[in-house]
Structure formats: structure tokens, C-alpha cells
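Continuing the series of single-chain predictions for the mutant panel. This is the parent chain; the variants come on the following pages.
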Amino acid sequence: MAPLMMRRGVLLGALCLAGLAPALAFSQPGGGPMRGTATRSVSLYLERERALAAALDQRNRAAVEALLADGFTARSSAGPDVLERDAWLLSALGGRKRESRVRDLSVTEDGDVAVVSFLLDMGQGRGATTQFVVDVWKSSAGRLLTRHVAAGARTPPPPPRPNGRE
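Parent structure:
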């Protein structure tokens, strides 16, 4: 029983640290996160998160379902209820097609579980939104176990892209 409690403690600690990641990153001098070479874990989960975002953007139910665990659940700051897999799929795949972008991703791994946090920019222009997302993946299966989403009142804008005229 002690190893199970220790794993839960580590997972809870990772979720808490993931929640602080944007605040810590943007408190650095220069106002943005440090840039560098991505780790293997970051590269792997960035690819998975982008695949999931693309499948959701294109409303590709089969591709989304292939990435979700059977017991997948989701929680949002918009309400207190936990969404089960089918209810979340109905909500996430509803509406019109959109374009989204995963950025500022970080990964914490513990055994066969990976806690992935990132900012998800959706849409463009005045209707654009940014959400802070924490996903928990079962590493060996490549399946998403749970998703927690928070939309802040003030989210940092995406970093500017070089245009060659700097």
C-alpha cells in the first residue's frame, strides 16, 4: 500500500508543479520561457499532443478515439463535473472546424505515467482563446488517461514568430 500512496503523492506533486509552470516560465528575465533543445520526452509528447489537437481540429473521431484510454475522463474550470469519455468526445468534436496550436509543453514522467502540461491556442484574431492543459498519459499504451483544462482571464500571447526583418 505504501508504494501506491507514494506514486499518488508523486503524481499529485507533478500536477501541482505543472500548474505553476506558466507562472514560473514567464517570471524569468525577458518575460518568456528559456529556449533550448527539447528532451526525448518533450519531443514524444509534443508529437502526441499535436496529433490529438489536429484530430480534434479536423473532427476526426476515429483518430481521437485511438489516442484515448477506455476510462478517459476530462475536467474543466468551466464546471465542477467530470466528463466521461463519450460526453467529452461529443463536446470536443462538436461545432465547426478550428485551428489550434500546442506550445510551451513540459513533461514529468513517473514510471508508466507522464504528466504533460502546455498552452493550447485555439482560433485566430478576436475570437482566439488560450487554455492551460494538463494531460496524464499512460506511456506504454500511448493513451490519454485524463485531461484537465483551465482558461485564464489573462494568458500570455504566443511568442512572436521571426519574419526576417528583425
